[in-house]
Amino acid sequence: MVAGLSEPPTLGRASLQRVLREHPVDLVLHGHTHTPFAGALLPEGDPRRPWVYECGSSTFWPSPRKPKGAIARYNVYELHQATADGPVTLRSATARVLDLATGQFAPQPLAVPPPR
Q: Are 40 and 71 in contact (CB under 8 A)?
């Protein structure tokens, strides 16, 4: 199962971890923090440990008021489901990051968790 959240930080890390343990989710896609992230929020070995991605912000333009390195970006995910009721797996994840020199979004591969 894939969960999409717009503002998980409002839950707080402990509350979000509790929700993830109570509801089986394989992948969490979220926004709002504007800080790119790829990783897990539950400890290694936890059977309910979903992978979490935050793409950053697709509209960030460098400025002195924004965090260092903040730049426009978005993520592209390739998902696979072998059967209608089977698990959804993540095949690939790629960040597309604005290259200021070319004005184009350049691909940057993201880590993908091993299959469970």
A: no
Long-range residue pairs from 87-96, CB within 8 A, at least 24 positions apart, any chain: 87/1, 87/26, 87/116, 88/1, 88/2, 88/26, 88/27, 89/26, 89/115, 90/26, 90/27, 90/51, 93/38, 93/53, 95/36, 95/55, 95/56
Please name the amino acid found at residue 95.
A
pLDDT 10s digits, 58-111: 777 777 777 766 788 888 999 888 888 877 788 899 999 999 899 999 999 988
Q: State residue 5's pLDDT score.
A: 66
Q: Is the pTM of this model over 0.70?
A: yes
Contact between 5 and 25 under an 8 Å Cβ cutoff? The reply is: no
